[in-house]
Amino acid sequence: MYGIIRKIAGKICGAGDKQAQVGRQFYKQVWTSLSATEGGAKTYVQGSEDEALLARSAGNDLKRLQSSVGIKKTDDILEIGCGVGRVGKVLAPICRTWTGCDVSANMLKYAARRLRDFSNVRFVELSGYDLKPVASESMDVVYSTVVFMHLSEWDRYNYIEDARRVLRPGGRLYVDNISLTTGYGWNFFQESRAIPPSERPPYIGSVSTPQEIEVYLNRAGYKDIKVSVVDDAWVIGCAVK
To answer: Domain of 101: which CATH number?
Structure first.
């Protein structure tokens, strides 16, 4: 993973210490640059352009969503950070509507191409900090997977808080991140730390803890909160409005 990060770190703003001039918080600039080509977009979504890997990981995420928050045929579902439509492709056939949200117009273009055969999908470009374009109480499920690692902690909470506004009463939320408390998460943390500060790209992944996710869900006013660690890697937070 970090071999890839080191190799392509200069794509955003040039080589050397110029990388540090683009802050992590400039999500739109960062992710628009990273998704200039569809191949690049897929690489940053999953680490490679392999379509079989893309489909397999989407299937795994679908199982995780089904077992945690449940997916119903009558659900209106929204994804925060939909990327190239990896998960949307397996969700759209089994829900009423699927809305893909992303900070990058390029990502949304590729996602629309991937999901072009479905009439129940739409796409929304975000600022990178909230869900303002989405109507209040318009969704039954809001989820975000493999996205929080790229966000600062304040913006993780922003999305969790605004997702509650977007959800209907009884609506379900799912979020995840790599957990610092796991073996995989600690190695991930150490590999990131080993990159010299001046060379750390703004999209570098950062971890969470179960306590962090639980605090966010509680502070945002959710109920039926469940936080778990799975596969010695991921922390998952689920809750109900």
So the answer is: 3.40.50.150
